[in-house]
Structure to design on (248 residues):
């Protein structure tokens, strides 16, 4: 079944948009998951601006359950080394990481969801020269997740255990705000569900208390525009495929 999809492009004020809505549309359309970074760090003041913007995110009962750990300098390198060593050991032992997260992972991708997953996966592999069936090449690219794609910073987001799934939903909204704030500041960022499979390691490495649950990790920094993995853009489903109008 072919997927009806929308090429990512910003809407304009000529299509009935306000100026603010056009800016938001442009940020959403231009944002992408950055998988190649310059080595120079983002100044802390700029990172604080990004975090301050995201702090305005709405949450249920204004609970604001997110807590954020940001690595820089030696803190990033220690984390990268430990994370990559663990992932590489798992790969050498026979495959996928031990997916032990604080939240359930998807049971399966089926139908159109599987098609979208495959499409974006092969967009990535083709961009970096991995051919269909090249398990060594695809495995090497997968491990880049655990090198933080060479980013100078990692960002760890946790929620309060007692808030359960709804705390994670609020954190998801927060991550969306972070991605837009990063794009507005010229920062590249990628949210990484792959890191959620190492929740026990995150808990130990960052000394997380028992009342905190690991939601997601992100890598971020100044994007390396000519990196092959940054050359493609995933597409979006058309509005008619995701919206049902009820007028009676």
């Amino acid at each position: 079944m072919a997927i009806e999809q929308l090429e990512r492009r910003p809407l304009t004020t000529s299509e009935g948009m306000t100026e603010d809505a056009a800016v938001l549309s442009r940020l959403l359309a231009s944002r992408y998951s950055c998988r190649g970074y310059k080595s120079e760090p983002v100044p802390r003041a700029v990172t604080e601006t990004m975090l301050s913007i995201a702090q305005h995110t709405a949450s249920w009962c204004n609970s604001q359950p997110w807590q954020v750990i940001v690595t820089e300098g030696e803190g990033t390198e220690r984390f990268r080394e430990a994370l990559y060593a663990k992932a590489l050991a798992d790969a050498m032992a026979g495959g996928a990481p031990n997916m032990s997260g604080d939240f359930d992972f998807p049971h399966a991708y089926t139908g159109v969801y599987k098609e979208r997953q495959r499409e974006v996966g092969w967009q990535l592999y083709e961009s970096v020269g991995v051919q269909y069936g090249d398990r060594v090449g695809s495995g090497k690219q997968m491990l880049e997740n655990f090198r933080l794609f060479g980013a100078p910073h990692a960002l760890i987001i946790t929620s309060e255990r007692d808030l359960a799934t709804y705390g994670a939903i609020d954190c998801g909204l927060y991550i969306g705000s972070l991605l837009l704030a990063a794009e507005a500041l010229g920062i590249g960022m990628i949210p990484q569900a792959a890191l959620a499979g190492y929740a026990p390691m995150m808990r130990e490495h960052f000394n997380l208390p028992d009342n905190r649950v690991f939601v997601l990790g992100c890598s971020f920094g100044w994007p390396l525009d000519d990196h092959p993995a940054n050359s493609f853009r995933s597409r979006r489903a058309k509005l008619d495929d995701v919206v049902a109008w009820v007028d009676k």
The chain is about 40% helix and 10% strand. The chain has a mean pLDDT of 91. The domain at 34-105+147-232 is CATH 3.40.109.10 (NADH Oxidase).
